[in-house]
Task: inverse folding
C-alpha cells in the first residue's frame, strides 16, 4: 500500500518509495509496477501525475484526480508557484549555502537554464578510509530547485563536486562502491521531503511533508546525523 499524505476530491499526494517509477519509461523498460497504476488500484479511480520524481528519488508526489485540476497545477508548476524541498546527503562538506545557476542539456540536446538553491543542515565525518585518508566527510543539505530539469539536483551537486551519495550515473562511482561494499547501500540519498502550494480549487496554502525512508534513516544513523524532524 502506498502511503497517502493528503487526499480530497481534487488532488492526492503520496510518499513515493525509492525504486518506484511514476509511469512507464523508455529508460526503464524492465519495470512492471508504476506509481500511477498502484495508486489507481488503491483508491479505485484514475489519477494524473502533476510532476515527476526520479525512480530512485523518494518523497512527496502529487496527482490530480481530473484533467481540469491537472491543467491548473501544471500551470502553477510552470510559473514556479510551487515550492519543492529536498533532503540530500552529499559527499564532502559543501558550502553553507549556495545558488547553483548552471545550464543543463536535455536528451534532445537542448540547453536549458537550471537553478538550484541549497543550504547545509549538518556535517558528518566517519572512520571510513577513502583516497588515502582515514576518514570520509559528508553533509546533509536541503535543496530547493527553482527549475525542474531532468536529474537537475544530481547534475548540479556533481557540478560543484559534492555528488549525492548513491547517485548513478551523476555521482561518485568510487564512493558508491565504498558504501555498497561496507554498508550494502543500493539506494540514492535524495528525498523530496516537502511540497508547498496553494490548493487548485480552494486556494488555501498546503504544506505536505513526507518522512524519509528506512534506507535514508539507516545512512543517517551511520553518519550520526539528526534526522528526527524528518522521520
Result:
Amino acid at each position: 500500500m502506498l502511503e497517502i499524505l493528503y487526499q480530497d476530491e481534487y488532488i492526492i499526494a503520496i510518499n513515493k518509495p525509492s525504486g518506484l517509477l511514476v509511469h512507464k519509461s523508455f529508460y526503464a523498460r524492465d519495470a512492471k509496477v508504476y506509481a500511477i497504476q498502484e495508486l489507481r488500484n488503491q483508491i479505485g479511480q484514475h489519477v494524473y501525475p502533476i510532476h515527476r520524481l526520479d525512480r530512485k528519488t523518494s518523497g512527496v508526489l502529487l496527482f490530480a484526480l481530473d484533467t481540469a485540476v491537472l491543467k491548473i497545477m501544471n500551470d502553477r508548476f510552470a510559473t514556479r508557484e510551487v515550492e519543492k524541498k529536498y533532503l540530500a546527503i552529499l559527499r564532502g562538506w559543501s558550502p553553507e549555502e549556495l545558488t547553483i545557476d548552471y545550464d543543463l542539456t536535455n536528451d534532445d540536446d537542448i540547453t536549458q537554464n537550471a537553478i538550484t538553491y541549497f543550504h547545509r543542515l549538518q556535517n558528518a565525518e566517519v572512520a571510513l578510509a577513502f583516497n588515502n585518508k582515514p576518514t570520509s566527510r559528508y553533509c546533509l543539505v536541503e535543496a530547493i530547485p527553482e527549475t525542474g530539469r531532468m536529474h537537475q539536483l544530481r547534475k548540479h551537486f556533481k557540478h560543484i563536486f559534492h555528488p549525492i551519495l548513491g547517485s548513478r550515473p551523476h555521482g561518485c562511482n568510487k564512493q558508491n562502491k565504498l558504501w555498497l561494499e561496507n554498508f550494502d547501500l543500493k539506494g540514492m540519498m535524495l528525498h523530496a521531503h516537502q511540497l508547498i502550494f496553494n490548493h487548485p480549487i480552494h486556494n488555501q496554502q498546503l504544506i505536505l511533508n513526507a518522512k524519509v525512508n528506512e534506507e535514508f534513516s539507516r545512512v543517517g544513523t551511520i553518519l550520526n546525523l539528526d534526522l528526527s524532524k524528518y522521520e
